[in-house]
Structure prediction request, 447 residues.
Amino acid sequence: MPAKLLLTSLLLQLALTAAYPDIARRVAEGKTKRQTVPAVPFPEYPGLPNHAAFNSFNASAQLVDVTGDHAWIAPGPTDIRGPCPGLNAAANHNYLPRNGIATYDTVETGLFEAYGLDQSATQVLQQTTTFFDGDPVSQRWSIGYHSDATSSLGPLQGLVGEETGICAYGHLKSEGDASITRGDFLAPEMNSNCASYPVFFQELLDLATEMNDGNINAPVLAAHQNNRKLYSIANNPNYFSPAFAGVAFTPAAHLFVFELMANHSAEYPRGLLTPSVLESFFSYTQAGDGSLSYTYGYERIPDSWYRRSLEDLWTAPDIIEAVAQQCLSYPQTCAVGGNTNGVNTFSGVDIGDISGGVFNSASLTNPAELSCFISQNIQAEAPSSLQNVFDGAALVSALALIPTQLLPALAPLGSCPGLPPGKTVSEYGTGYPGAIIQNSGPRANGP
Prediction:
């Protein structure tokens, strides 16, 4: 695993441990509406150190094919699209199935071919998503809302429980509040966690102008993640950030934007992400007056776009390292907990209580400990997720796949022997109105 990140001063340690319970007061006082100054500077090239020194470009190997079988085609009326622009674009170009139902083989190969996402990362993505939001037996999951097409039980599935997909009732499993441009599922307004909201996209563009002359880089996205969480605390009385979706998945998704969407060239071998490229990937167009227009599900890989080098893949250890760097730069980003009694009433959950006393808030800045904390939480949540979908013999069969499919996929997170069982959201989220896991309801089948 990556080497331990060092806290260089006692002041930083104090800031880290004191940040969590102080969030609500500071937001209420208006001091954290837009906090773009990190406790520690966020690196321009996060992840493992080798990325900052990478300096190679191969045009023929890195050009992504958007012609023929991979030509852009708008989704049809029964095709599913969801909250992740990278997945949507991959489906629109047939790097994932155009119907929006991801499979083991297409995730392993498609995301590697389109974006240079290493298979250590796609394995974690595939298995956690099938166990949380899809079907571990069929190895299918929806990149958006619920679909009967993911089920291994066919028409019998609805008699037991619905596989949610990654948005709508996938909330708090793989998808969490304070996403890049989507809404919070339980917020009083702007509450689609499948669709993008122009106001949040514009905030990202404005922040890029403020911090980086208009181009989007990793420090911009790290600051945007921090701002989005502060916005949710101040505007969503049901804001809640769980251990996996809130600490690991949402910060990682922010950084995916640069790491997987930046265009590469001989001049910029480590990538350059301009507003026009971002707009293409996020399905936005800009009018002459600067106003933004969003079309649901029309995400597109730009023409003449060059992915990251296959000699410089984005790996599972990179993701962990980058999230740990986020936790160090913006400690409040990694606070587990939520509002308890209206907006600006954030109360944190003790990491030690979730982990059986093994980890604490400082552990989240240590990649090796963060890896084990995430692995522990995934293993805690998987059985309860399956119990919401299967019963009887089908449940027994699905649970039997945890040691044979899920645990091997978590191997890139490192060796974590002797971990006690962790707690689930339903256990540590008691008392938080936003810590509600649902598998079906009136919002299951659309954005």
